[in-house]
Write a structure and sequence with these properties.
alpha/beta, binds nicotinamide-adenine-dinucleotide
């Protein structure tokens, strides 16, 4: 690359929740950003504020079809992330993860680009160890209703590591734990957006099970800082790296915080737990902390306030 010119980066799934924040962060770092999306769950509104930047382009394309561009780096985020969306067309979900990974890895190999995979804590399934370290192989039901996502992402990781071993392709893999923030889809059934919307409408807050199951919630700006730290790490470290916030909250605690911060009159109602819903999920982020000194900074209350503000804007 000639001295002084901008690095070019391809972000698949760039119009989604995380992708739109990643595109914004990369533009701030002076990258030229190519955002590719089929708009299954992504929204043009998410990237609208970026379109005035001459170094930003948006393309409608499905990663299950090959795509070609001259870029220095690829971030592969394309994949519906919430059960309502990934279970809508499970075969397409598997294809997105698996064919998408093959197409992007082939591209990366041909153009000699470094490639990042947005993997997930779902590769651990319903874990038997807490917190989960990257060395844990997981407990996934391969034929359950979540398998299209969990096994699709596991197979994508396999492909990333096989391309790395077989062809020496530079890869970076991050396993993302629950993340929340502005640009989340209001209707994807994820717990933070669900609770906030129900609270803002003063509707009953639906808790699956007895509310004692725990999750850890990472604010989006912390996660995106983790993505770029993983990618920019010049060493051979491929990961997988757990990225998330290790602080654990029960669903009951989360619901109560949301009700208070949204100044809501909502009441709690309890529904049966969906199939294969993990009881606990908490990342061990020691590896990411040691390798590139990354650690999440945003407190749940502060992140919830920003997210509530975003959803108030959507509902008004
Ligand atoms: N948000 C989280 O908490 C979380 C947790 C774990 C993993 N992840 C992973 O991070 C990535 C982004 O998740 P998100 O929360 O932003 O979800 P999202 O649904 O908002 O974004 C996914 C994006 O990918 C696009 N997409 C889906 N299928 C595609 C295809 N075949 N071709 C092109 N584009 C396609 C969607 O239109 C959307 O813009 C996903 O790969 C997801 O698995 C997210």
């Amino acid at each position: 690359m000639p001295k002084g010119s901008r690095k070019r980066v391809l972000v698949t799934g760039g119009a989604g929740f995380l992708g739109s924040h990643l595109c914004a962060a990369l533009l701030k770092k002076n990258y030229e950003v190519l955002c590719l999306d089929n708009f299954f769950t992504g929204k043009k509104d998410n990237v609208l504020p970026l379109t005035s930047n001459p170094y930003f382009e948006v393309l409608r394309h499905d990663v299950t079809e090959p795509y070609s561009a001259e870029v220095d780096e690829i971030y592969n985020l394309a994949c519906p992330a919430s059960p309502v969306h990934y279970q809508f067309d499970p075969v397409q979900t598997v294809k997105t993860s698996v064919h998408g990974a093959i197409n992007l890895l082939d591209l990366a190999l041909r153009i000699k680009a470094r490639v990042f995979q947005a993997s997930t804590s779902e590769v651990y399934g319903d874990p038997e160890v807490h917190p989960q370290q990257e060395t844990y192989w997981g407990k996934v039901n391969p034929i359950g209703v979540r398998a299209c996502y969990d096994e699709g992402k596991r197979c994508a990781e396999t492909l990333f590591f096989d391309f790395h071993r077989q062809y020496g392709l530079p890869i970076k893999v991050a396993r993302i734990f629950n993340t929340y923030g502005p640009n989340m889809s209001p209707n994807d059934g994820r717990v933070v957006s669900n609770f906030i919307i129900q609270a803002l409408k003063n509707e009953d807050i639906t808790i699956f099970g007895d509310g004692s199951q725990t999750r850890s919630f990472c604010y989006v700006s912390d996660l995106i800082a983790g993505f770029t730290a993983v990618m920019e790490n010049s060493g051979d470290a491929t990961g997988p790296f757990n990225l998330g916030n290790p602080e654990e909250f029960t669903m009951l605690e989360l619901a109560e915080k949301v009700i208070t911060l949204a100044n809501s009159k909502s009441r709690l109602v309890f529904l049966p737990l969906p199939a294969d819903d993990p009881h606990r999920r908490k990342p061990d982020i020691t590896l990411a902390q040691k390798t590139f000194q990354w650690t999440p900074k945003v407190k749940l209350e502060d992140g919830l306030k920003e997210t509530i503000k975003y959803f108030m804007g959507l509902l008004s």
